[in-house]
Amino acid sequence: MAEPTDTATLSLKGKSYDLPVFSPTLGPDVVDIRKLYDQADVFTFDPGFTSTAACESAITFIDGDKGELLHRGYPIEQLANKSTYIEMCYLLLYGELPNAGQLSDFQQRVTHHTMVHEQLHNFFRGFRRDAHPMATMVGVVGAMSAFYHDSLDINDEWQREVAAIRMIAKLPTIAAMAYKYSVGQPFVYPQNSLSYSGNFLNMCFAVPAEDYQVNPILAKAMDRIMMLHADHEQNASTSTVRLAGSSGANPFACIAAGIACLWGPAHGGANQACLEMLRAIGTVDRIPEYIAKAKDKTSGFRLMGFGHRVYKNFDPRATVMKESADEVLDLLGIHNNPTLQVAKELERIALSDDYFISKKLYPNVDFYSGIILDAMGFPTSMFTPIFAISRTVGWIAQWKEMIAEKNQKIGRPRQLYVGEKHRDYIDVNHR
Ligand code: CMC
């Protein structure tokens, strides 16, 4: 850790405490409160971590006010337009863009790990056909630790590396299998001749009865969706992976924990919830009713695909995703789709409405991704699994960064206790 650049002073009950202040490469200064409990016998209170940096990280930076997202310093817009998902995986994992040799070697390593252990197929058959693919994925990814014993030792750098490659390579296979199982079609094995995203589309949409040609424009759009979801610094699922990993849990268990967290509708589940909301609205004339509901605190309803904890200007991923949505819909000749009309009008109304302007609520990445995935032929239940595939590299990069840290500690938050004070047990006959 760098040296402190300043000192903050906290006054409490007539005493003052000096707290070191660190300056990051980018972003606000950070007040170091690690010794505060020892020195002053107080905790800090920050449920939801709105003002708390829980770790040091060199992977991703977000400036929410500017609407800026950088991976290892590179702006997401440049990566999404010029790079590929597999190259981004390399960047996130190893910190630099690969040269041609490094890229082809990495691609080769990932490609040759895409098959899953044949016995893992039996796991899928144990699930109900109508299970949500995210439920299947949490189970199967957790079960990977029962299959890949030679990459469970977190203290062995080589094993950590193999576990990372295995998960990046196998998550698309597992997600596609979850999909195939849910529609009652045979599993399609990975094809090493295809690109990462093309292979995923093939595993989802090919059937043994006829040839399936991966459309390169759709494969590119899928690759872009993956790039836009690859990492997002210390979001809920990434923090879950870090917390799970901080106890020394094996990498497959940690990623399964991340998938479970991602499923929630406030996080990765929002893409499914958003498209379902657009379909429930159905026609443009019903939008005002839904806008009114979103403003009414007692309704418990939120416009899905709007708002973000960190972005308070715009979500740069949403801007790129919107362009991609236009390209894909054009390619597929979809212009008058009612869901799309509702989405466009909802976006227009919400962006000119005082409630949304004053609360800085903008369409987020999930507002547009569902429209593309729907047009590609995915059911809404596959939207969050696709997010999970994409985010796997971010989770692993962050997990690897944490494990490699010297003096890494188990995550153990404290609390503001509001329960009963000490009281004595009363025998059941006297209560
Ligand atoms: N619709 C209507 N009102 C909203 C919305 C929304 N989508 N989002 C926030 N608000 C209001 C909220 O009621 C609150 O109002 P007030 O200040 O009067 O109490 C204010 O805006 C701030 O909301 P918050 O819940 O304190 O903000 P947060 O930072 O805790 O939550 C969020 C961020 C993304 C969970 C939230 O905006 C939300 O629930 N959005 C809908 C779900 C969604 O699209 N999630 C995907 C996020 S992007 C992908 C990802 O990260 O996984």
Structure, described:
By secondary structure, the chain is mainly alpha-helical. The protein has helices spanning 36-40, 76-82, 85-94, 100-111, 120-125, 133-143, 157-183, 196-205, 216-229, 236-246, 251-262, 270-281, 287-295, 316-331, 338-351, 354-358, 365-376, 383-403; strands at 6-12, 15-22, 30-31, 60-63, 68-71, 74-75. It has a three-stranded antiparallel beta sheet. Strands 4-5-6 form a three-stranded antiparallel beta sheet. A hairpin with a 4-residue loop joins strand 4 and strand 5 (68-71). Helix 7 (157-183) runs parallel beside helix 8 and helix 9 runs antiparallel to helix 17. It is globular and about 75 Å long. The mean pLDDT is 95. It binds carboxymethyl coenzyme *A. Carboxymethyl coenzyme *A is lined by residues 235, 266-268, 270, 294, 302-309, 359, 361, 364-366.
Order of helices and strands: EEEHEEEHHHHHHHHHHHHHHHHH
The major beta sheet can be summarized as: 3 strands, antiparallel
How many angstroms separate the termini? Answer: 56 Å
| Ligands bound to this protein structure | carboxymethyl coenzyme *A
Kindly state the percentage of residues in helix. 40-55%
The portion of residues forming beta strands comes to 5-15%
Radius of gyration: 23 Å
**Secondary structural class:** mainly alpha
What's the total count of β strands? 6
Helical segment count: 18
Strand order of the largest sheet: 1-2-3
Uncertain regions spanning at least 5 consecutive residues:
none
What would you call the shape?
Answer: globular
Mean pLDDT: 95
Give me the oligomer status.
single chain
